[in-house]
Amino acid sequence: MGTIRLAMAPIAWTNDDLPELGAENTFEQTISEMALAGFVGTEIGNKYPKNPSILENYLSIRGLSVASAWFSTFLTTKPYEVTAKAFIQHRDFLHAMGAKVIVVSEQGQSIQGQIATSVFDKKPKFTVADWEKLTTGLEKLGTLAAEKEMAIVYHHHMGTGVQTTEEITYLMEHTNPEMVSLLFDTGHLVFSGEDPLEIFHLYKERIKHIHFKDVRKEVAQNVKQQKESFLTGVKKGVFTVPGDGMIDFVPIMNKIIESNYSGWIVVEAEQDPSQANPFEYAVKARKYIKEISGL
Fold it and tell me: Mind telling me which residue stretches traverse the membrane in this protein (predicted)?
C-alpha cells in the first residue's frame, strides 16, 4: 500500500464561490474541527493567513499539513504570461507550506461561477485553438512546478471545458505525463455522468491528488432537468460527504489502494453549513473512510 493521508477542504465551512455560505465560520474553527474529526491535512481557503510562517503555526499545533490549494488558469482567454506570473506566486506559497502538488483548473470560458447559467446546457466547448493554448500552457506550468520539485494536478470540473470523459481523455492524450498530472474527483465525475472507475483505471499512473465527495442523486437529476447552474446545485445540496450519497466508494477505494497510490485524499464536499453542520459531516466522512479502508 502506498502512503495515503486524509485531508479536509475548508469549503464545507465557508464557500469561497458563495461567501454567504458559512460567512460566520472562522478560520480557526474550521481547522480545529478538521483536526478534531481526525484529519491530518487541509486544502487552503480564502480565510487562511497568506503568510506561510503564520499559517504554519496555526496548522502545526493542530497536527495539520497543507495538501494543496486551488489555482485558476486562464490559458484559453488571456496571455500565458498573466497566468504564469500569478502561478509562480501561488507555487512559491505552497512550496513554503510543504505541499507537493498544485491544483489547477482552466477558468477561461468557465460558467461554474455563474448563478443563472445552466451547468449542462451552457457548458463551454473548446476549439482546437483553445485546446492548443491549454495543453501547451499547462506543460509550461508543469515545468515551473518542477523547478520546486512539485507537480500540477489538473482538476476536471463541472461547468468548464474539461468535464467529461472525452475532454479528460483529450487533455491527457495531448499533454506530457511528466509535466501534467490529474486530480481525480469522484463528485464531479458522477455529477457530470461519468464513470469514476473508468477514469481511475485509464489514468491511475497520472493521478497524484484525489478529492472525495458524494452526490445526492435526486438533487443532481433535478439540477439537470430544471436547467440550473452549478452553484444553485451546490446550494440545494447536490454534494455531500462520502457515504452519504449515491456513490459506492468501496470499489473506488479498493482500486486506489491496489494501485499503490501515494498522496492525499481530500474530503471536499461543499454544502450550505447552515443545513449540513461541517463538523458533523466531517466526522461522518472520517468514520466512513475508516470503515471501508481501515485508514
Answer: none
75-106 pLDDT per residue, tens = 999 999 999 999 999 999 999 999 999 999 99
Alpha-helical segments (H) within the chain: 27-37, 52-60, 80-96, 128-146, 165-173, 186-192, 196-203, 217-225, 230-236, 249-258, 278-293
Q: Would the pTM of this model clear 0.85, i.e. be above it?
A: yes
Name the grid cell of 119.
451547468
Q: How far apart are CA 98 and CA 22, in angstroms?
A: 27
Domains and CATH numbers, the chain: 4-293 (3.20.20.150)
Please list the residues that pair with 42 across neighbouring strands.
Answer: 8, 66
Compute the distance between CA of residue 70 and CA of residue 105 in angstroms, rounded to an integer: 8
C-alpha to C-alpha distance for 219 and 229, rounded to whole angstroms? 12
